[in-house]
Batch of 4 targets.
Target 1
Amino acid sequence: MTLTQSLFIIALLIAASAFFAVAEISLAASRRLRLRQMADEDDPRADKALRMQEQPGDYFTVVQVGQNGIAILGGIVGEGALSGTLGSLLTLWLPESTASNLGFVLSFLVITSLFILFADLVPRRLSMVEPEHLLLRVLGPMQLCMTVFKPIVWIYARITDALIRVLGLPDQRDERITSDDILAMTEAGARAGVLAVREQQAIANIFELDSRTVASAMTQRDRIAYFLRDDPDHVIRARIAEEPFSTYPVCDGDIDHIVGYVDAKDLFQRVLNNLPISLKDDSLIRRVLLVPDKLTLAEVLDQFQQVHEDFAVILNEYSLVVGVVTLNDVMSTVMGDLVSPDDEEQIIRRDENSWLIDGITPIDDVLRALDLEALPNEDEYETLAGFLMVMLRRVPRRTDAVNWGGYRFEVMDVDSYRIDQVLVSRLHADGSVMPVPDAPTSTLSAVAAVAASGPAMSTLPGAASKPEAQHPKPQRETPSVP
């Protein structure tokens, strides 16, 4: 066999080996979601590829038979093709025995390098980049090879199946897609720039609805604006003007005896028509949905759907009112800062090393902002204020602080035993607080500076806050829920 014929055969063997390498990696790396999308676009090859992924045993058997057979032939042909030629050239400078041995070594290195580069590395890398398209191209020839080598495939497949059963190994790939898989895909899309970071965060928030309780999104008890059943007309009108919100609970005597709720649209109609407002009129009061405080946000959404309501009162195990929640509250939790104005953020980043956080901020949002995996005893609280109470084992006071996870959580403002603001600062390894660039001379003045730039506390939508004597909070007008 001449040198030209040997080189031609080696080139064919490299091409065949590259084909099998592409066939192997493209099937393994192809995404079922992408193949299913291509099948929905009327590409019949995609359906065949999906079926092949479900039962890939014969397919991979053909690939291994082909690759190993080609490797053996490549060694035989390569050794005879280049050893003699290289040995003859080296005899010009070396003794014949040395030149022959060195020619064999060089022939082995050249043939092996060609196979590694052009039959392995390059095709496998291409197959990882465009697996679905390459799989559809090689699928037809591979099915032909499976037909030709069917007897050999059958023998090896039966032996392999027996070994897998004996060893107790799985023989099929788990194709179930979990929420973790979807979140990982969205995070990868956000890093690649295909998906906006805010959109990725909204998707992550949707999956958190099953784990976040309703307490993380509700309006707290002390911020609820409500009417008493016997409130006169002028009191109701004054409250509407002072706290214009979409819904108001109606109570009999106190907030723990809720008889229903009234929609602001019904009250406005009476005002516009110069009619007196009396909450003793049962036609104004709607039946209120009562839900326990241990429900998740997903369960609350199901309750809203079942009763066709968008407002609910939340009770604890002692049947005391702990808050109210609206459909808008739940959607705000999902959408995050996509729907929340900047001046109503619960978490304000002052600089790269410190944050000013509302005490009622859900702990999941705190973890996300601080890039923490978890906080201790998470099952005992829902908010940052609850975390501080659990860690301190008492009701926190102003200037109380907790160091954990490389951060210092310092209580800056307490209003009637309720934690309003917490300053979170990053710590050095030695436990000292990292410096704030261009910071005010004191921590309290820093908080005052932030507070002066805008309200640090968020008012949740759907219900108003009761005015407080010493520290009135700016309120947000919530549009009527349709």
Target 2
Amino acid sequence: MFESFDATILARIQFAFTVSFHIIFPAFSIGLASYLAVLEALWLWKKDEVYLELFNFWKTIFAVAFGMGVVSGIVMSYQFGTNWSVFSDKAGPIIGPLMGYEVLTAFFLEAGFLGVMLFGLNRVGPKLHFLATAMVAIGTLISATWILSANSWMQTPRGFEINDVGQFVPVDWWAIVFNPSFPYRLVHMVLAAYLTTAFVVGACGAWHLIRRTAPRRARKMFSMGMWMAAIVAPIQIFAGDMHGLNTLEHQPAKVMAMEGHYQSHPDGAPLILFGIPNSAEKRVDYAIEVPKLSSLILKHDLNAPLAGLDTIAEELHPPVGIVFWSFRIMVGLGFAMLGIGLWSLWCRYRGTLDSNAWLHRAAVAMGPAGFVAVLAGWVTTEVGRQPYTVYGHLLTKDSVAPIAAPAVGASLLAFIIVYFFVFGAGTFYILRLMARLPRDPTPDLDEGPIRTAGAAIANPHGGHHGH
């Protein structure tokens, strides 16, 4: 059934599918590990048991997400040997050590302290247990550092030479690790992980506030999630802008695709808000645009000229439609997160953070927003790099293994079936865990009178909807 397909396209789809499943778990576990460290630090500092209760609640969810992230990462890495062996051969002298450093420093650190964090509180004591939690959080950040360094080198390669057999060989490891796009991309990704976790925690707290199942714990979760959203969202927008300027300098074709600029604009380029990219006619149909705003954002000058894709050979154009829309999804969700954060600040100022039902519903609806934004951001950066795997040096079509399309198609089909069953079940289990926040041990008098009699009248079978 796959005879008519192109092996390179199928290999790209397979890698995109597996990496999309993988990235949502590290994006969550990076932020959640830091959140757990904050919860335990607050418990040790304030001696308030609610922080320990929330720590125990979220550590189980972290364990499941961490496990699924490890499994999906292992599966993804096999493709370097099966589908992308030519890339592995050529870029292996650089990518291989970077991935190895991630295992030796980050993964071993996480694995070494994870068991203590999950099961050791009553065995090693609070202070040593907090050290273990902090080490797991630091390990997730070190892991992100090495992975982003490897990927950023593929985006902005530096510090290498190409030998007689076409391999990239290192000549300056400092230049390789700290390549031009690495600092921007690392900050952008870590902030994205923190925002993703903040909105999951906030949505969970809002859900339980709506259901009134555990008001005290839910209020604490919701408040912490909204503080994080309000603080990090504007920082992330600024970091994203700096990342965009760096991309314009080193990968201009990607920015042209993001902006939908098929043609050059010598007297100031418009910001196209929405439209339908038409690569055949080299224009954006039905464009809704703001004149000269793109030049102002990218060059800080209304009349600054901006080059378009017409200055680049057509075979080197990235797929404009995908990059154009994924970028808008990411940016749109970023500003929606900022809006929720500002709304929460206003409600906090007015004293209605715990009682504003519309804010709670909006927070629940925005719970998955971080994951979608992370996926859209990775689609933008990876598809925007095409047609290269190592930008400017190694084309994707020259990186694929000599493998037949039916073989790639069969494994892709198997991945789709297995992933949806296995990770679908895992995600469902995480959602079940989030929905089962234990009730507060004592009635929360701040919530008003306890409506036991009303519940008994409304429900002759006893209890109420929260049970």
Target 3
Amino acid sequence: MSILPPVQIQCPKEHPDTEEVRCPSPAFARMHLIKGKDAIDRYLAMHIKGLSKQEAAAYRNSYKKNICIDMLRQGYHKSFAELFTLIEKWNALREASGPGSAIWLQKSLEEQPEKLDQLHFFLTSAEAAQRSEYYEEMYLNQLSLAYCFNKSEDRWLRNYFYEQCYKTAQLIKIDGGRKEAEAHSNMGLVCEEQGQFLKAAEHYEAFYHLTVGRIWKDETGRTLNTLACEHLWRIYTLLADKMLQNKEHQQAIKTLIKAFEMAKEADNKNMEAEAAFCLGLAYHSAGEEDTAILKLNAFLELSKILGDYGGIGRAYEALAQVLVSLGEVDEAITYLEKFLNIARKVQLTHNLVDACTFLGNIYNERGNYSKACEYFDQAFCAANVLADLPLVNETKVYCGIGKAHNMMVKVNSHTGAADHVGIIYLLAWKENRNDMCTDPFTVGQSGTVALPDISTDAKEEEPVIQIS
């Protein structure tokens, strides 16, 4: 279970539509136009006299085989080997996943002519650039292939070509390291996507160091250095969350301080606020409550500057948790009531449930069961509005706990008295079980409770006790 709030893991940026990077028709397009047995027979009937042996073979061969033959004829042996290896890798992945898996139901790579066309064009273009030592052009062709395979089912291909881009970028010496920096960024995103956070952090740190002092910008106008700071803030926060789960509090705090510094360097107030909040939670987990309060107050002030009511509510809730651990319950209740007012004001229903549940638990622990029931009921009503069944069930349990405690106060008072009237009351309640929270001994609307006949004389009139 995550200790820090969830940090969204970013996938690699949106790439251009594959239509924009489609390769032009290959020189041997004529052999690709005729597909299917009927089309072949019709063509042969019309052109049988002028059909060479090579042309006949082209029409009879599979699309993949024609692609491979063309690569070899043009001398692109490396591209042929790479294409063949990728097809074999896809088949191995499919076999390893087994029948019924998602990849098992997909078409194989060799059965998708459009993808084969993309691979043929860009692989041969990259190989030609490599022969001429135009490594930047080679990098761009490999990057275009990564862009082509950005769909979820093709991620393994995209990741493969990002790795190729990373290797090629090391050979480019004329751009001051920009391509290498971009390659580190892409590899970091791939590792982050696969949950390899330490490896991702290494790539992001390399990306950051290559962009320090540079004015390089991406297509949105942001500097690459700012982007590197954002990546590092995110990955440090994810790493710290893992450390907190493993009770490595001091290491987590050091990592979160680095995340906070990256957020400040990026000049992003939202990120800075989140970093301060996570630091506050980490100090609280480590038992350093005074420092936790300082960081949470910093988060509160930043949230107020940003006009983030949700953030303000989270700050009040976190401060209340810290104060409860310090035994300052009355002050914690003050913060929680502020949290509750904000949740109602801006209709943050989830926060409303949290605030009411927290307040209910505090009053329940202090023995004020009627007040606890009131807040638990509010939490239950708010959960019903959300139509969140697990949350509804959870708040229902809290309501049951509060009502049971409230009822037990009255039951225990009669049990503790151990007198004749108390026993009669308990027996009457056991028979009726009416309105346990308000008054477990009230029956009907007449204001009287009919007590059971406990005398040995069957003819004696049943006593009636008036309830004022």
Target 4
Amino acid sequence: MTDTGNPAAHVPPPGCPAHAEGAVPLGGLAYQQTPSQLYRSLRREHGPVAPVLLDGGIPAWLVLGYSEVGYVTAHDELFARDSRRWNQWPNIPEDWPLLPFVGYQPSVLFTEGEEHQRRAGVISEALEGVDQFELARDCQVIADELIAAFSGSGRTELMAAYVHTLPARAVVQICGMPLGGADTQQLVDDLRISLDAAEGDDPVAAYGRVGARLAQLVKEKRERPGADVTSRMIQHPAGLTDEEIVQDLISVIAAAQQPTANWICNTLRLLLTDERFAINVSGGRLSVGEALNEVLWLDTPTQNFIGRWAVRDTQLGGRQIRAGDCLVLGLAAANTDPQIWPDAHVGAENAAHLSFSNGEHRCPYPAPLLADVMARTAVETLLERLPDLVLAVDPGELEWRPSVWMRGLTALPVEFTPVVQ
């Protein structure tokens, strides 16, 4: 989603403070492969809050420090979620590729105060109705079906054949959408485009199609409710409108599908490339659990999150933040902040990472637990069914997706002994 080809694309609009701040583009080929190097460079030059340029040279602040991200997310009165505060809207074109992220929508993502508590409460209670044991069982059924489709070949590309498909099917199923339909697959494809568009994709149009399909789902569930997340949101005493439910469903499905897929991807990569896990790569639960947690520290699926908008002029990390400035939460950078890991060793023994964000707008309970069920079941089932799974290429040949927001591979080719069905 980041323009890396035309240097003029990164020239800030006239009068922007980024000219004087020495801001650098948040993206590029070097960033794609080794974002940690950019984080270290920015931290060295600017400290825990660095000036960056988004697509089209739009200025923003990247919050790199662990404590600074924690402060921003804990102080909604200073750094709020309603993007209509942004002082850069006059410079944003109608086809700006980040509009699906920052264009104001009447969804839980942009609400504040009591309204946010009301909307987030509906989501939490709807998700609490998901039985985690049933979800694990359903994920295993989905995993077995996907694995059966390629297990006889002895070779496959896991990102397309398994990693992205499993959480997509699982989340639309708990939301009450029928599996196997063409419209369900179109929804999954449009979610990918709107969250992480490739060259030639139209993320704004894709986002519109996602909304239309979910509006149809809400209409169907009002007429024929079931034991699913959508029906529970409709029946909640808070009385959300259809538009509110559609917008919040987009948030729920998008947050469950893409990040969980990348969590699965990055965990499989770690298990298949790190000799520390080689002994237990055949599915040892302790090993998989450690790998899942380590990935949240070192290769978190959501690298950066846009964002927060300053309510008034303030200071953060030694920087003067103007009212209306955009702050990008550098979750990956914060997780590896040398201030919390002074010996340059990031351990996986605790869960104090910021991968699910922090504060009132963090991923609502019990969503992180449901994501863990999906990711753990996907990884364990694959390794149990194909115990001699190995990479089909040299680890150095694996390529990261060209996104500053999501952290995942473009492809994960593997080989294994064919399984006769």
